[in-house]
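Researcher: Re-running this chain for the archive, since the previous output was lost when a drive failed. Same request as before.
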Amino acid sequence: MRNTIKTLMLGAALAGAVVLPSATAASAASDPVHYPACGSYKLSTDHECLMAVRGKQVHGWKATVNLHAEKRKGHDWVFAAAWVGKGGHVWVERQHAGHTQTLGKMTSLGDGFVSMGLVGAVYDGPGYKSRACADLKGGKLRTCTKWY
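Model: Regenerated structure tokens:
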């Protein structure tokens, strides 16, 4: 495996889920991050799928982000997908030798999903860890998967 990060163009549409806000948004401090199985959000091409959920569906915002890892020619390629609403973001964080770098940050221009997969996937070489992160407009409910 090479120790560099490469970008690969993808044409797949990917989706996570979020429930749009009610009149009162939940406080980020009071909403822990949960890590359920990907379930129906796992893609048929996923070698591994991680999910993170933050917020309460009934009482305000709910943010969900997925990290999708595909095996291609023996290497892992990872990308993120989330439903964040207008102004929300999705990105991948890469960690290597104690340093964390933000890669591929995308902003949702509408109420649809936003996915790094529409622009590119990140090669996750030896010694690197990756996780998917998302937030809602204004940086609310920042949510990240566990490191892969």
